[in-house]
Design goal:
With 494 residues, this protein is an alpha+beta fold. It has helices at 3-13, 34-43, 62-74, 116-119, 134-142, 164-177, 179-182, 187-193, 208-214, 256-277, 288-301, 350-355, 375-385, 434-444, 450-457, 461-473, and strands at residues 21-25, 47-53, 77-78, 84-90, 93-100, 111-112, 122-125, 128-131, 227-232, 246-252, 313-318, 321-327, 392-395, 399-405, 477-479, 490-492. The protein has 4 domains: 3-132, 2-Layer Sandwich (Methyltransferase, Cobalt-precorrin-4 Transmethylase, Domain 2), CATH 3.30.950.30; 149-220, no CATH class; 227-414, Heat Shock Protein 90, CATH 3.30.565.60; 434-492, Orthogonal Bundle (Arc Repressor Mutant, subunit A). The protein has a 6-stranded mixed beta sheet, with helices on one face. β11 and β12 form a beta hairpin.
Length: 494
Amino acid sequence: MSWLYERVRNAIHQNPGDQGVAIVKANRTVPASLPQTVSAFANTDGGLIILASAPGSGFVPSDLLADALNSACSDAVEPSVRAEMDTFQVEGVTVTAAAIPALSPAHRPCFVRAQGIERGSYLRDGAADRLLTAYEIHAMQQARSQPKDDTTPVADATLADLDPELVTRLVTRLQRAHSSIFEELDDATILRMVGALTANTATRQPTLAGLISLGRFPQQFMPQLNISFVSYVSVDGSTDDESVRFLDSQAIDGPAPRMIDIAQQTLVRNMARAAVISGGQKTWEYPLPAFREIVANAIIHRDYHPLAQGTQIRIELRPDRLTVTSPGGLFGIEDATSLTRTPIVTSRNATLARLLEDVELPNSRRTVVEDRGTGLTAVAAELQRAGLPPANVTSTRASFTIELGSPSKVAPAAMSYSRRQPAARGQITRQPTQRQADVLRMLQAGPKPAAYIEDALGISRQAVLKHLIALEEKNLISTTGNRRAKTVCWQMVP
């Protein structure tokens, strides 16, 4: 017998609850919902439709069942679906079946023609057909061509809404790196050429990419295009024994380079706070270069379509993991797990990605994007060096999430930041200042040079040395050698 027959028998006898199977009784009439099920399977992972009609009152002949299935696949939906069909006798019951293939992303969504794309696009959800939301339809349509949302002008924004310092640093960098192209041009012309301003020379209006990269305060025009950072006190987000749920919760605003810098400082602060609260027991840390790459990727590759502009990037820190979630699933890539193994250069926001290759981070000569396409492979390498497990990458139609776990195998129920845990002998008993707590948290993971701390905290070398010396005077830290040596590091006192 054919493979389709075997699949039908297996579906009926062994796995009738499989969400990839729709068994429909057609004892009196052919169900009008057939096109909806075809649409749902074509927009998901494909599936099997089985029409069963038992002889007797209201018996539907098998040729009518076959015609109905064929019409549902070829005439009733757009685009048409090429399904493999056949009719069998299974234990005395006439069965007409069709194997519906999943459409390629370039041809989705498949919709019921009579209902139109907005009201006739379905998704298979468990054992039911569910209407796609407006955003899900947009996400599918987006895969058909290169999105241009990052090049659209921002209403009411002008050249004056760009940060002069960021603009000057960008222009200087471009003129230095590409003197033959940009050397003799004025700032506005250069900004137009790199996509930060629209082509209309009269309005000098910033594009979305320009405002996100160089704006003084982009959230003035798009309030939710920012980052939400939450540090939970427990693994499951519940409160501790003092009814405290969050260690920290804040909205991070500003242009992309500033948001990345603040997000990094916020992570450092919260990891330090968690270490102090837990009595100094946490001896691991998330590598900051990996964290910067992940946040930068979230900003660069998130969906900026108007339907997604009401959703923030979310950073959630828990005792056992760190997650970064951005609006919009993968663009141009079907296998999310390949991102940490293979360099990928496909970008939903091509202009923004290219622009951020030359926009510098605060207090640094590094740019937001240093090696385009290798961000998540670099993250994988940083995690391995830090002794952390590989990142867990998941993508849905509405969001993309990267989760970093801790190396600890402690059961989740036992992991929390208990505020009442007493300090053990030899641990920190005096509450440090916030900056000193940041420094202590980094040193608890091992000796660090002052330059590392300066880079992590985004403060001056003089300020770092002030905090180091203050902690040394409290006999909490010491140097690994002569403090005048270039290779000297600071470490916790045993």
